[in-house]
Amino acid sequence: MHFEQSIILAASRETVWKLVADTDRLNREVGLPPILFTFTPRKAGGTDAIATARIAGFTLRYREHPFDWVRPAYYHVRRTFEKGPVREMVGGARLEEVEGGTLVTVWGDLEPTNALGAIACRAIGAKAISDFILAYRGFDAYLKEAAATPYPRHSGRPTAHRERLRQKLALLKTAGASEDVAERLGGYLAGAPPESTVGMRPFALADRWGVDRISVLKACLLAAGSAVGLLDLRWRVLCPSCRGGPAATSRLSEVGESVHCEACNIRFDAEFDRSVEVCFSVAPAIRDVRETTFCIGGPGRAPHAVAQFYLRPGERRTETLILAPGGYTLASLQAAQTVSYSTCESAADEACVRITESESRAVIQLESGEETGCRSAWTIVNESGQEVVLRMETPEWTNQTATAALVTSLQTFRDQFSSEVLAPGMELAVRQICVLFSDLKGSTAMYRAQGDAPSYRTVREHFDLMRRIIDAHNGAIVKTIGDAVMATFSDPAEGVDAALAIQRAAMAEPDHPVVKLGLHYGPAIAVTANEKLDYFGQTVNLAARVQGASEGGDVVISSALAADPAIAEILSSGEYSITPFETVVRGVDEPVKMLRIFFAGASKTQS
Fold first, then answer.
1. Angle at CA 534, nearest 5°, toward 462 and 243?
2. How far is CA 75 from the centre of its chain?
3. d(CA 190, CA 594)
4. HSE on the CB side for 406, CA within 13 Å?
5. For residues 223, 225, 227 and 230, what is the CA-based torsion angle, rounded to 10 degrees?
6. Angle 397-403-408 (CA atoms, 0-180°, nearest 5)?
7. What's the alpha-carbon Rg for the chain, to the nearest Å?
8. Which of 48, 228, 231, 428 could anchor a disulfide with 280, C-beta 3.0 to 4.6 Å?
9. What is the largest CA-CA distance in the chain?
10. Cα 396-194-172 angle, rounded to 5 deg
């Protein structure tokens, strides 16, 4: 039995796709029940997803086959039921560009189990199509700015704890969050759809509000601190395949070095600056929101995938794809390898992917070469003896991820969550981090001349100055060692800017000790040391050696930092006197190239 209905939405296909392809929220909006998924690993790779749902007092169980989609043209899915009036359902949506916007067609094919099931299927199919069209009308009103939300049936209800929310917002402002961000966050928590207040990404909120990302991240960290208690902080590890993964955890120490994604049936390493991210949920004291799932396989869950094809053994199909110029990857959980290719306007307009089999694993072969046209007819042939899910992916991860490396490099995090550490003995790789070391020149003579108490007070005031400046430049003090400081920054340009600001502030105070500063940028290992989150590795060691080359009153940076375009722009202002030099560093075979930076006209012989 076939059911179909169309509606025109007043927006581009890409804009409409973002709403229609978010099947998790869409299914909630049309009134479908929450789904409990269990996964059975497949020997060839991937899993079989079994869904269980309660509808009208009955329990339904079905296998959800992988979705097919081409962004932003269509998606569909097949579900086979264990029992009940429906044997199989195939349904989805098509999007076509038309005058006035996008024609969206929702359709479904239902196969009944028997004659009585046919009667039920007629009613089920007609109601489902009607409910989806009603949801699309809600999208249309939102796109025309006639509605505040695209989900009117399940929009947020005013929180039952408004007075408590008001009190928490006052505490948040007192803790240091900007009034504008605090008010936006409060309004969002009070009125957003329930599912939107669970697993919130601070950068996504910032982009939605049109405000600075780091200011929102810092506000969320303050809101999750024990003094405010407005949000709960969660750590989530993103699967490289589905960009989902295991359930979020409240403690960083519960994140493992190796993580298993049950949905994809793959194990992968957690990466501190890539796959481990921080997210936030509204505290139960403000809104009692339960995390529910309505769909796990839709294209909205994998925005990095431009297309996905579910191919049965022997299946052959041809698809016309319109891809932006750039690099892409062909990947499959059933295959041991991936295939990279690029698109450009001048390449051939035909491509062929052949999937064969070797030792029970699929083998992906791109026969048309490593380059294809931006608009090409793709022929895809599954010659293996197994079901295969083939994805065309962009290499980029979402830029809305606040990674663990970034978050732990913020002073706000260090202040609010000083007890957050990795599990004992655990080491997580950080691909790139900027490390700053500082020291005070002549501190031994200062202690001898002034005595312990006055000298200690001077050092503490110096630490306070460094902390303020490092915090203002989105860095964090990792530890102090005597009168030295180790700090980290996720953005190397912010690190160099902070070092220059420290020297500028120190030289502006006549009695301030002379500061030696050095910075380096590169990979490191995040560990727990002395019950604190710390970093080790060659980058950290070399940063300390770079600082050792400082004469005082200057900032010394490694050649790795000097090559950064953003840092080159900072140093091109004419405010600085820059001297390249080389020095021998213990543990490094060749002399290390560095830059010594003084303020133009400043004395180079401070003592």
1. 125
2. 24
3. 52
4. 22
5. 40
6. 165
7. 28
8. 231
9. 100
10. 85
How far is residue 538's CA from residue 493's CA, in Å, rounded to a whole number?
20
Q: Residue 72: is the preceding peptide bond cis (ω within 30°)?
A: yes
Closest C-alpha to 313, from 387, 391, 380: 387
Rounded CA separation 462/266 (Å): 49
Nearest partner of 101 among 19, 178, 194, judged by Cα: 19
C-alpha to C-alpha distance for 157 and 57, rounded to whole angstroms? 26
- pTM score, whole prediction: 0.84
Q: Are 326 and 342 in contact (CB under 8 A)?
A: yes
Question: Residue 219: pLDDT band by 50, 70, 90 thresholds?
Answer: very high
Helix then strand then coil, in percent of the chain rounded to 5, is 30, 35, 35
Q: Is the separation of the CB atoms in 396 and 370 below 8 Å?
A: no
> Exposure of 100 by Cβ count < 10 A (0-12 exposed, 13-18 middle, 19+ buried)?
exposed
The pair of three-digit structure tokens given for residue 313, joined into one six-digit string: 């053994």
Q: Which of 57-61, 180-184, 397-401, 550-554 has the lowest mean pLDDT?
A: 397-401
Q: How many Cβ atoms sit within 10 Å of the Cβ of residue 267? A: 11
Closest CA to 303 of 378, 199, 428, 393: 393
Instruction: Count how many residues are written for the chain.
Output: 607
Q: By C-alpha distance, which of 188, 176, 272 is closest to 231?
A: 188
The model's pLDDT over 88-112, given as tens digits with 9 standing for 90+, comes to 999 999 999 999 899 999 999 999 9
Q: Which helix (H) or strand (E) holds 377?
A: strand 375-382
Lowest mean per-residue pLDDT among 394-403, 520-529, 554-563, 588-597: 394-403
Of 276, 544, 532, 279, nearest to 428 by C-alpha is 276
Whether residue 607 has pLDDT greater than 70: no
**Cβ atoms of 320 and 377 closer than 8 Å:** yes
* Number of Cβ atoms within 10 Å of the Cβ of 397: 16
Average pLDDT (325-341) is: 91
Return d(Cα 372, Cα 364) in angstroms, integer: 16
| Residue 173, token pair as written in the block | 């402002």
For the stretch 168-173, contacts whose Cβ atoms lie closer than 8 Å and that sit 24 or more positions apart, written own/partner, are: 168/223, 168/228, 168/229, 168/230, 168/286, 169/230, 171/227, 171/228, 171/230, 172/219, 172/222, 172/223, 172/228, 172/230
Q: Is residue 12 classed as helix, strand or coil in its secondary structure?
A: coil
Q: Are strands 375-382 and 47-55 parallel, antiparallel or unpaired?
A: unpaired
Which pair of tokens denotes residue 74?
Answer: 């269509």
- Which residue in 140, 118, 139, 27 sits closest to 77, CA to CA? 27
**DSSP states of 149-191 as a string?**
-S-GGGPPPPPTTHHHHHHHHHHHHHHT--HHHHHHHHHHHHH
Determine the Cα–Cα distance for residues 223 and 185; give it in Å rounded to an integer.
Answer: 10
